[in-house]
């Protein structure tokens, strides 16, 4: 090593130390270590320690290595930045073992982490309907398809079967189809929600009064007060038909159960609002449609409408699912400002009350269910009407979602929502987790098919059920009914040649063989009457039962069979003559339009689209706004390096893309500074490319990377189906081909066309984005910061009006794009970034936010000119001119 590192200064230092410490051996060894470590750093490795000379005694299980890895394998699987590949001397784990809490263990002995808990190998936990086992430091889970749950709660909040969230904005009395059967199946059902204006409150608020459930032509209406009506007559509970059953399960919930197809839970009599939970059985995947989506695990197409295409505009989407003609409905979306902005005086109280979702006892559920959407809904509702019941409704919905994942807790007292717990009467007791099956004598007698789940409310004590009269009695005291006659327990009747005895509310019959006499059913007589509801171009895609004889026949004109009413012209036309609608405009028969990478054509009044699998795109921009490959959006803050995307062990192409954030404002606001991509990651052929703002992109001729420059972006291409698109600032887009589907991980998710499981750590999904983000840190950093509920303008109040006025360009110049891409979340992010980026980069933060929306509009075929000399101007050089939509593959001298 003498030719590489001059030993003279180390020799002199060694003499001083040894003399100073009186010949102490430790000082000699320290000096020698310093010299040979410098040798190792320069690439010269000398095994200088010997028995009797500076020998190192390692803890049990470890061995000394003069050139061990500086990035050891650990059970946690934490990523390290090991680009320099320096080795270090010291005690290391033997090959093929992993470091865990200071010990070296086999991979099979590595524990797993979920939330704040550590689980031993072979431990098992349940995630919805799947079971996960800890194996080799990772969670290995079954992949059963679980039931889907659609929720409506609060003032106007909806969550689809696939987990997409949106808010309805209508200001007139309207009924909408929440869910209906779709495709070929043995059952026809439709669930309609009726919204009416609340009286005495602000104009945009809605009160859901009732639900209409139709199964195989039979309709019942469930009113918000708990009454159930069939053909305008109230019926006694339980109400049972051949296709479905309605029953009271607690004092607060009713259930509609339809065999093996769907289960409906309705919360009634809560401030004249209705919380509704529709559980679609797993065999209904792709066989439902409506405001609740199509239940195919893909959130991006949940706004599919009866005209055969997905609509980004919520108002346009919801209007196509109207179940009736809404009087005075506006022709365009009645945009309403967020109530917390309009009524800012209510915001502090909303933050204090809704903030309880972040504290115990709700805190224990954060790893399972993301609380942020519920917090946002609570803020919206309480700001619009500052009464505690608005928040308690959202709290109750979150608690019920947690209970369905096995997390049951008492929350009402801590949240000051005791007012929602009515006094239990007739011998009933309160329970946060009452059983929902066989809760009454009627349900037992009718043998209603049921899937057990937690529901809150007043219920009967253990061993008791609700009688027909509404009081709690022992199960053995339940009577039975036959042909309308009541039988007490132990009483019996004859059924053909069998004796049936009443026992615990059920008939127990002997099993004698009885001869059966042949009977014929009477046929119905068909009467020609005018249909009560005319089929139109708008409604022809909705399911229609066979015409039945109405109570009062009315003669009149209607379209012939095979024709429908075109409401625009008032004429009867063939179905093929109906126009298609998308993005606020009409398309004639045969016209085409592009939707992402697919082409859609108007055929017979419906859209017929190609079914190509589009490449996955993950976006990271501004103050760490992340949109995963599967479309899930979230954000967090912390200056650190994070893995955006990397290949999994079963991916034949090894790569890693990481992003480095630096602080750019208050409240934990961070912006990306550089992007690093490694191909052949973890192999001897590893190649690294780092893109740093302000620095020129340099790639060697024989590299596995290639660069092209188009518009404002740099594209980095590889031959493994991974491309980076970078704006040379704070916006990075990772694009991957379908071959990587389900074989990637990181902040960008796993690209399996299911956005509900994108928040994943090591093999296991979590509801906490901060836990997920921390697991993808490279090296040691501070914990990520949750900035979802932070208002960047609160700490900079003088910037709010400026930020809102600047970001208002999204509402004006981009109006043509609103039907394709919802601008509202981009507006909120723009205001946040523009306020919070207060360390000199506010203009860049603003321009990046607007450009992110503009780029998404470009993907959907809308290209507004929005840059001006006063707003994010672009100075083009080399005789080039600015254009909002240029080719991503420009013609160059090279190609």
Automatic annotation (TrEMBL):
GO terms for cellular component: extracellular matrix; extracellular space. Residues 148-330, 616-784 form the VWFD domain. SMART domains: C8 (SM00832), VWC_out (SM00215), VWD (SM00216). SUPFAM superfamilies: Serine protease inhibitors. Pfam families: C8, TIL, VWD, VWF. The keyword Disulfide bond applies. It comes from the Eukaryota. InterPro entries: Mucin_vWF_Thrombospondin_sf, Ser_inhib-like_sf, TIL_dom, VWF/SSPO/ZAN-like_Cys-rich_dom, VWF_dom, VWF_type-D. Keywords: Disulfide bond, Glycoprotein, Repeat. This is VWFD domain-containing protein. It comes from Ciona savignyi (Pacific transparent sea squirt).
């Amino acid at each position: 090593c003498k030719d590489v590192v001059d030993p003279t200064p180390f020799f002199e230092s060694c003499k001083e130390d040894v003399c100073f410490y009186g010949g102490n051996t430790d000082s000699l060894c320290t000096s020698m270590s310093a010299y040979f470590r410098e040798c190792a750093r320069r690439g010269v490795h000398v095994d200088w320690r010997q028995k009797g000379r500076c020998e190192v005694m390692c803890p049990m299980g470890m061995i000394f290595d003069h050139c061990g890895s500086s990035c050891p394998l650990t059970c946690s699987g934490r990523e390290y930045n090991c680009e320099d590949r320096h080795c270090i001397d010291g005690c290391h784990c033997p090959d093929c073992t992993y470091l865990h809490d200071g010990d070296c263990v086999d991979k099979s002995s590595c524990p797993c982490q979920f939330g704040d808990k550590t689980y031993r190998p072979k431990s098992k936990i349940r995630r919805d309907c799947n079971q996960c086992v800890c194996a080799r430091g990772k969670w290995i889970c079954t992949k059963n398809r679980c039931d889907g749950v659609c929720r409506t709660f609060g003032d106007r909040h909806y969550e689809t079967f696939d987990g997409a969230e949106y808010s309805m904005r209508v200001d007139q009395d309207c009924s909408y189809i929440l869910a209906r059967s779709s495709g070929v199946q043995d059952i026809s059902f439709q669930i309609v929600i009726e919204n009416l204006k609340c009286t005495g409150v602000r104009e945009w608020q809605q009160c859901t009064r009732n639900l209409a459930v139709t199964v195989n032509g039979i309709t019942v209406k469930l009113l918000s007060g708990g009454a159930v009506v069939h053909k305008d007559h109230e019926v006694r509970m339980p109400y049972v038909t051949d296709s479905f059953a309605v029953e009271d399960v607690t004092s607060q919930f009713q259930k509609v159960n339809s065999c093996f197809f769907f289960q409906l839970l309705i919360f009634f009599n809560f401030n004249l609002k209705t919380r509704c939970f529709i559980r679609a059985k797993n065999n209904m995947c792709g066989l439902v449609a409506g405001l609740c989506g199509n239940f195919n695990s893909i959130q991006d197409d949940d706004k599919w409408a009866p005209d055969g295409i997905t609509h980004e505009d919520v108002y346009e989407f919801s209007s196509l699912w109207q179940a009736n003609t809404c009087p005075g409905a506006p022709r365009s979306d009645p945009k309403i400002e967020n109530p917390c902005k309009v009524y800012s005086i209510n915001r502090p109280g909303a933050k204090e009350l809704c903030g309880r979702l972040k504290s115990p006892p709700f805190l224990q559920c954060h790893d399972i269910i993301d609380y942020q959407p519920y917090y946002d809904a609570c803020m919206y509702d309480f700001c619009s009407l500052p009464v505690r019941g608005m928040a308690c409704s959202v709290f109750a919905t979150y608690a019920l979602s947690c209970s369905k994942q096995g997390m049951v807790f008492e929350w009402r007292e801590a949240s000051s929502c005791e007012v929602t717990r009515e006094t239990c009467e007739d011998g009933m007791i309160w329970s946060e987790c009452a059983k929902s099956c066989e809760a009454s004598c009627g349900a037992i007698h009718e043998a209603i098919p049921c899937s057990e789940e937690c529901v809150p409310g007043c219920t009967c004590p253990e061993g008791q059920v609700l009688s027909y009269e509404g009081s709690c009695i022992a199960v053995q005291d339940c009577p039975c009914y036959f042909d309308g006659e009541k039988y007490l327990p132990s009483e019996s009747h004859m059924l053909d040649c069998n004796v049936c005895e009443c026992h615990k509310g059920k008939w127990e019959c002997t099993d004698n063989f009885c001869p059966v006499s042949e009977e014929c059913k009477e046929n119905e007589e068909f009467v020609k009457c005018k249909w009560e509801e005319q089929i139109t171009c708008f409604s022809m895609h909705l399911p229609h039962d066979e015409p039945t004889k109405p109570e009062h026949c009315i003669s009149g004109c209607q379209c012939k069979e095979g024709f429908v009413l075109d409401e625009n012209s008032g004429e009867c036309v063939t179905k093929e003559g109906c126009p298609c609608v998308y993005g606020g405009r009409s398309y004639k028969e045969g016209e085409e339009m592009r939707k992402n990478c697919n082409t859609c054509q108007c055929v017979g009044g419906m859209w017929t689209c190609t079914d190509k699998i589009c490449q996955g795109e993950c976006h990271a921009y501004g103050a760490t706004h992340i949109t995963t490959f599967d479309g899930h959006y979230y954000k967090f803050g912390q200056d650190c390096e994070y893995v955006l995307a990397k290949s999994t062990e079963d991916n034949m192409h090894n790569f890693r893309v990481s992003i480095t954030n630096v602080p750019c404002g208050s409240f934990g606001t961070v912006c990306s500074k550089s992007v690093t991509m490694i191909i052949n990651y973890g192999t001897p052929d590893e190649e690294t490319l780092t893109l740093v703002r302000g620095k020129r992109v340099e790639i060697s001729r024989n590299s596995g990377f290639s660069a092209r420059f188009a518009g404002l972006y740099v594209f980095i291409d590889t031959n493994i189906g991974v491309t980076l698109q970078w704006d040379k600032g704070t916006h990075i887009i990772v694009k991957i081909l379908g071959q990587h589907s389900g074989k990637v991980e990181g902040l960008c998710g796993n690209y399996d066309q299911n956005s509900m499981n994108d928040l994943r750590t090591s093999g296991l999904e979590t509801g906490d984005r901060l836990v997920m983000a921390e697991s993808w840190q490279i090296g040691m950093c501070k914990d990520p910061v949750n900035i979802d509920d932070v208002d960047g303008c609160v700490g900079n109040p003088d910037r709010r009006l400026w930020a809102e006025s600047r970001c208002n360009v999204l509402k004006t110049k981009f109006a043509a794009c609103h039907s394709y891409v919802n601008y509202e979340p981009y507006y909120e992010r723009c205001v946040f970034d523009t306020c919070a980026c207060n360390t000199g980069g506010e203009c860049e933060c603003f321009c990046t936010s607007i450009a992110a929306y503009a780029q998404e509009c470009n993907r959907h075929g809308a290209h507004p000119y929005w840059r001006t000399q006063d707003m994010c101007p672009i100075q083009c050089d080399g005789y080039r001119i600015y254009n909002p939509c240029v080719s991503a593959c420009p013609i160059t001298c090279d190609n």
